[in-house]
Every structure is written in structure tokens, then in C-alpha cells.
């Protein structure tokens, strides 16, 4: 079976946030590499504006490669080559109006056809020994059911997410979900398990999305469609235990850059020293 993955791209500041660099790599590159590590071969990128910048990023750049080779900048050369030597097929489609995540995913219907597929949101970076996308595919191989990644978040933050009402635990880290609710009020949330940016869905979701009425914020919500799907076939929630970085807001973007900078061999030492010195200085104030 071949897996297909899509992602929704929106605008962050003046440029798509997927084009924001984390140390020396663009956010979209991390996402595409996660897909590749999970064995995905065909990727459809659903974009809004600024599609060209993303397409250009994955194009080869022979002049730059020659320059880097001539000046022995091997590290940079490798980074540049990694972008184009992905060995996967990239396709693009456009969401003309920002009508919601459900609407963005519906645009992939003919691309996906009758196969299960993975959705990866472009503003969530995940870090774990086995990638989260692979974890979802492994669950699917056992259950053949749609599986949504969730994570426990602080209770006061639940209204920023889709939230599940977990039913029985099927086995470790897998729940048979009772209900999916998009951005509930904090006092109405059925749990602290938030939907994070990775979904494995069966193609029946498209019949539901076709008729889906606007929900929260007047947008076509994927969470609402998943809740309907859950009434006709099993939908599971897989609890993710790795790290998640939300690049989609200013604070999250800064934290992500610091965390990745601390792990990067070229920036680790200097950044660590700087943070320690800065912390001492800030403590004095
Ligand atoms: C979207 C989904 C939401 C999910 C979140 C994860 O919300 O609608 O269910 O919890 O992504 O990042 P958005 O970030 O578009 O507000």
C-alpha cells in the first residue's frame, strides 16, 4: 500500500511559516523528511499564497552547488543536496480561500483516491526516536482504522486545540475515541488530550467533508468530519510521548529555534554559553 500525505500551509508573518528556518533548515524540510522516514513516496502540498517560494525551495540549484563545492563548504553543500535528493514525488495544489483545514484536505480528494493517507500540518514539528507519522502507520497496520495523534496539554490550553473524549484504552497509548470536539471552552473540554498535527485517515472522510457545514470560526473543520466518521467506523487516538514544537506562533517559533540550536553540532556550544550568561544577567535584573 502506498501512503500519501498532505499538508496545509498558511501564512506566518509576511511569509508562509513553513518557509521559516529553524537554525539552518526550513520547517517544511523537516516535515518532508519526517514523511520520507515513514516510507511515504508521494506528497501533496496544499498551499495558500506564496506557493512559488515552497516549490522553488525543492528545486535543484546547480550554480549554488558548484560554488559550495569550489569553496569546500561541504556542510552547506550537503544541506543543499539533501533538499533536492529527497527521492520522493512532490505535488502542489492550492486552496483559493482560507476556508478551514477540512476544506484544505478536501482539495486532495482526487489525488488520494481510495487509499488511506496521512495529513501533516506544516506548523508542528515532532521529535521522537520513531517519527510520529511512522507511529501512526504502524498502528494502522494493526487496526486498519483512522488514527489521530493526540498529546496531553495543560488544561488551560485545551481551547486552542481539537480535543478528544477518550473511551476505552485499547492497548498502551491507543484509545477508542468517543467524541472529537474542535476548540472546546476550557470548562467544557472532555479531556486534556489535544489533537496535534498528524492524522492517518481512511478515504471515507472525503464523503463527509463534501457535505461538512462550517463549524468553529465559520470554517470547515476536519475535527467535525472526523467526529462524523467515528460514528460509522472506528477512529482511534494514538497518544504521542515524544517532543512537539509549535512553529505556528511567535513564542513557539523562538523556543523551537533555541531547542534545535542546542542540539545542532555547529551552534550547541556557543548557544549554551550565551544562554547561561544571559540567564545570569536576567536574574540580576
Ligand atoms: C488545527 C486543528 C485542531 C488541532 C490543531 C493542532 O487547529 O483544527 O484540531 O488541534 O490544528 O495544531 P489550528 O492550529 O488551525 O487552529
Task: Report on the architecture of this protein.
The longest helix has 17 residues, at 268-284. The protein has helices spanning 27-37, 51-58, 62-70, 74-84, 101-106, 109-112, 132-143, 205-211, 222-232, 250-263, 268-284, and strands at 4-8, 11-12, 15-16, 21-22, 25-26, 42-47, 89-94, 117-120, 124-127, 146-152, 162-171, 174-182, 193-201, 235-239, 243-246. A hairpin with a 2-residue loop joins β11 and β12 (174-182). It starts with a strand and ends with a helix. It has two domains: 3-248, Spore Coat Polysaccharide Biosynthesis Protein SpsA, Chain A (Alpha-Beta Complex); 249-285, no CATH class. Mean pLDDT is 87; it is low at 7-15. The strands form four sheets. A nine-stranded mixed sheet has the order 7-6-1-8-13-10-14-12-11. A two-stranded antiparallel sheet has the order 2-3. The chain is an alpha/beta fold. Helices cover 39% and strands 27% of the residues. α3 runs antiparallel to α4 and α10 (250-263) packs across α11. It contains eleven helices and 15 strands. Residues 101, 121, 124, 161-162, 182, 194-197, 221, 223 line the site of 1-O-phosphono-alpha-D-glucopyranose. 1-O-phosphono-alpha-D-glucopyranose is lined by residues 101, 121, 124, 161-162, 182, 194-197, 221, 223.
Amino acid at each position: 500500500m502506498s501512503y500519501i500525505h498532505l499538508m496545509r500551509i498558511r501564512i506566518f508573518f509576511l511569509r508562509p511559516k513553513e518557509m521559516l528556518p529553524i537554525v539552518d533548515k526550513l520547517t517544511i524540510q523537516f516535515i518532508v523528511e519526517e514523511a520520507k522516514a515513514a516510507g511515504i513516496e508521494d506528497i501533496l502540498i496544499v498551499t495558500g499564497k506564496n506557493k512559488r517560494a515552497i516549490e522553488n525551495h525543492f528545486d535543484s540549484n546547480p550554480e549554488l552547488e558548484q560554488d559550495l563545492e569550489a569553496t569546500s563548504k561541504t556542510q552547506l553543500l550537503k544541506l543543499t543536496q539533501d533538499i533536492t535528493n529527497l527521492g520522493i514525488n512532490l505535488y502542489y495544489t492550492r486552496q483559493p480561500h482560507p476556508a478551514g483545514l477540512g476544506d484544505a484536505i478536501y482539495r486532495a480528494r482526487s489525488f488520494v483516491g481510495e487509499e488511506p493517507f496521512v495529513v501533516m500540518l506544516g506548523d508542528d514539528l515532532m521529535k521522537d526516536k520513531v517519527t510520529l507519522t511512522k507511529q501512526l502507520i504502524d498502528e494502522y497496520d494493526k487496526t486498519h482504522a483512522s488514527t489521530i495523534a493526540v498529546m496531553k496539554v495543560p488544561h488551560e490550553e485545551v481551547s486552542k486545540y481539537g480535543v478528544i473524549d477518550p473511551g476505552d484504552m485499547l492497548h498502551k497509548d491507543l484509545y477508542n475515541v468517543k467524541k472529537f470536539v474542535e476548540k472546546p471552552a476550557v470548562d467544557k473540554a472532555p479531556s486534556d488530550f489535544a489533537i496535534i498535527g498528524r492524522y492517518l485517515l481512511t478515504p471515507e472522510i472525503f464523503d463527509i467533508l463534501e457535505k461538512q457545514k462550517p463549524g468553529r470560526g465559520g470554517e470547515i473543520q476536519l475535527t467535525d468530519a472526523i467526529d462524523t466518521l467515528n460514528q460509522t467506523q472506528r477512529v482511534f487516538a494514538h497518544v504521542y510521548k515524544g517532543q512537539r514544537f509549535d512553529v505556528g506562533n511567535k513564542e513557539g517559533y523562538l523556543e523551537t529555534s533555541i531547542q534545535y540550536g542546542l542540539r545542532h553540532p555547529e551552534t550547541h556550544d556557543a548557544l549554551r554559553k550565551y544562554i547561561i550568561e544571559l540567564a545570569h544577567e536576567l536574574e540580576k535584573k
